Amino acid sequence: MPVEPLPLRDIHLPEPVSWWPPAAGWWLLLILSAVIITSIVLFKQVRKRRLLKRTALAELDMIRQQYHENHDRLELVKALSALMRRASISFYQRENSASLTGAKWLQHLDNTAQRKDFENGNGRILATAPYLPANSPIDIDFNDLLTLCEDWLSIQPAKGVSQ
């Protein structure tokens, strides 16, 4: 007796796996990567600003030491003026601090320190110091000026500022 073939159907393969939406593990990996990259960038920015602050304070100490050695008042105020200008440009956006002169420069220093000692105190000499002729009489408390500049540098934020 001949065997009759069975009525079998062909094998049906499942649909190919779609690439979208990704599995939960891929989403987790994407989020984790974004968090890690953001953390590294922020860490580097904070580290750079802290290094900037330490460098500026070290330069201030050198200026103080030079003043105690040679007692050149004009050189002191010129060096402090240049240091404060460079530090301000580094701590804040260049557009907001590099072009400031005179009273606006002193107001910027006061605003960023939340005090009024630059505009109304011994710090006002920083606006005119680079332009003083040699042997100009300068009648201010230099230790107070050095302390004022040191306080300003010390209170600058370690995180980025957008002013």
* Shape descriptor: rod-shaped
Assembly type of the shown chains?
A: single chain
| Helix fraction by DSSP (H/I, runs of at least 4) | 55-70%
User: Can you count the helices?
Assistant: 7
By DSSP, the count of extended strands is 0
Brief description of this entry?
This protein has a domain at 52-154. The protein is built from seven helices and no strands.
Describe it for me?
The protein has 163 residues and is an all-alpha fold. The chain is built from 7 helices and no strands. The protein has helices spanning 24-70, 73-91, 94-97, 102-113, 117-120, 125-128, 142-154. The longest helix has 47 residues, at 24-70.
Topology overview:
Layout: H1 24-70, H2 73-91, H3 94-97, H4 102-113, H5 117-120, H6 125-128, H7 142-154
Helix pairs in contact: 1-2, 1-7, 2-7
List keywords for this structure.
163 residues, mainly alpha, 7 helices, 63% helix, 0% strand, rod-shaped
